[in-house]
Each structure stands twice: as C-alpha cells, then as structure tokens.
Amino acid sequence: EPIQERFFRPHFLQAPGDLTVQEGKLCRMDCKARLLQCFVRLRPFPITLFTLKVSGLPTPDLSWQLNGRPIRPDSSHKMLVRENGVHSLIIEPVTARDAGIYTCIASNRAGENTFSLELIVAAKEVHKAPVFIEKLQNTGVTEGFPVRLECRISGEPSPQIFWKKENESLTYNTDRVSMHQDNYGYICLLIQGATKEDAGWYTVSAKNEAGIVSCTARLDVYTQWQQPPQTTKPKKVRPSASRYAALCDQGLDIKAAFQPEANPVHLTMQSGLVESDDL
C-alpha cells in the first residue's frame, strides 16, 4: 500500500517576550519550535486517516537577527541547542550595542515561522558604599521634651537604614519613638517626651550592595534640677603677707592709700577687692 508523507511549517511552542537587561549582565533568550509530520495511509475502501505528531523530526533550522541583520556567533554571542529542543541565544556581557529588535526564524522545507522581541539595555548601575555626610552627635535633653537624633548619609544604590539602642534593634515605629528618612539622605530618630529610660548609646547603620557603615552617639536625659546653674564666680585676691604687698599687686598709689583722710572702706569698694584674712 502506498504511503504519502506530508510536512507542515514549524511553529513555536515557547518564545520569550520583551526583555530589559542591565548593561554588563547576562541575557538569555529561549525558544522551542516543533515540526508537524503527518502520515496518511491510503486504502481502496474504506479510507482510514492516521495522524502522528513527531517533535523535532526533522529538526527545523533556526537563525537570529538583530534589527534585520544576521547575528553571527562570537565571544559574546552564543547559540545553543539542548536535547529537549530548546534553542538559546546567550549574550554576555550585554552592551548598549545589543539593544534593539530581535527576530528568530525557524524554517524547513515546508516554510518558516518567526517571532520578535525588543531588548532594552538599562544603564549600568553605579555602586557606591554608604558614607556619612553628617554624623550623629551626642545630645542632652530635659526629661519630657522631644529630641531628634539626626544624621545624613549618601550611597548608591540608596542604602537600607538600621537603628539600635545599646544592643536592642529598633524595628518599628511607635506613637512615641519613630524613624524617618527623606530623599536627600537625612535620617532621623524622633523621641516624643524623652524619659530617663531613653538615655543610652544609639547606633545607626547604612547598608547597600557596596558596603556598610555605622555611627554611634550618646543621648542623656536629665531633670530640670540637674542642670548646672549659670552663675559667675566671685573674684578672689591671693592672700598676701602685708597690706603693702596686697595693694601693690593691685597697682594702687601707696602714698594715697595711707593719707589720713583716705577712707579704707571707700578704697575697697572702688577696687572691688575681697580682702584676705591678712588684711
């Protein structure tokens, strides 16, 4: 009995969509094509139709194009075929020249099929370890008043911030203690109504892919009566062995000082001196 063999053009079972890859990274495009092969057995009467789908027999030819130009294998562009029929285009490292429209063409004796995707190459990310522009400062606050522990940090990408008091991590905000961060690198720990229990050493750490940095400062909380009084100390005169020596040390006119009409009390008030026990 004669056997008639017919072939159909391939189609893709698996194809990637548009991709965005960072410059310097690896890019991999996978696809899988299948060829349908149909066998029809002919008999005089009656006619019976048998259809058999055979994957990858014969294997279709695949080629790749970038913006309509064929891609040739080289040191950074590799084309692989795995046993399960998956074809891969691997680009490593990806550069700005690799951006564009990629087209994969699968062809055999019956025809061809294609799919396209766009590869966007993102600029290479710059990594900079965190650094303190402004560090934490030791701070004192009166009990019951608010206090801010503030610093400023820079880094690329933007670092994660961690706070600790002594050896205890501060992981969440409360109504009284809250952590804040803005887009300009300012970091703040705000305490509403400081108490004696808030006193201690505080550490802020910043971490990103390039490194980690930390800074520590002391917070003191005191009551109103503990504040040192703001008074000026009285002037003192070093004790001397004689009235003559004490007066000479002040640059006074000795003769005028011992005139009968001179008033010692008046002289003392004018000079602002505090007399010692010798006088």
Automatic annotation (TrEMBL):
GO molecular function: cell-cell adhesion mediator activity
GO biological process: axon guidance; dendrite self-avoidance; homophilic cell adhesion via plasma membrane adhesion molecules
Alphabetic keyword roster: Immunoglobulin domain
InterPro entries to which the protein is assigned, alphabetical: Ig-like_dom, Ig-like_dom_sf, Ig-like_fold, Ig_I-set, Ig_sub, Ig_sub2
The Ig-like domain, residue ranges: 10-116, 130-220
GO cellular component, one term: plasma membrane
Domain of life, source organism: Eukaryota
Pfam families assigned to the protein according to its UniProt record, in alphabetical order: I-set (PF07679)
Protein name per UniProt: PALLD protein
